[in-house]
Task: structure prediction
Amino acid sequence: MGLADLKKNASSCKAAFSKQMSIEEFIDNASLYALGQTHEFTQHTNVVDFLQRRDNKQATQSQQLVNQTEQVKKPFRRATFTLSEQAISDLTALSQASKMAKSKLIRHLIAEHNLLSDKDKQALYQQFEHDTQLKSLSK
Result:
């Protein structure tokens, strides 16, 4: 293979890349794609029209991304917990019964726990401590 084979052929580039977009549009579309949205590319008739549409589109998309970010909040982080064999089997059973992933189930249980009043939380903590002491005495 010679260097001449590596040259770009203008006619083949036009056929392969018929839909051209700016860097900003590419980044915006990639952001939308990452959020699970699709975007149809539209041809712009002239530079002024292109710039006006791009600026309007960026403002609209920025607002949409802000709104979605507020809804989605922060992405999840990986966490490692040490659980007893009984807790693992209980979590597995709950996951299978609810048909939810274990991590989603844990997030749901934490959200439910946060809805409890302080009095109810304290009662749960005391019951847990009582049950833990009973289990340790029976061994």
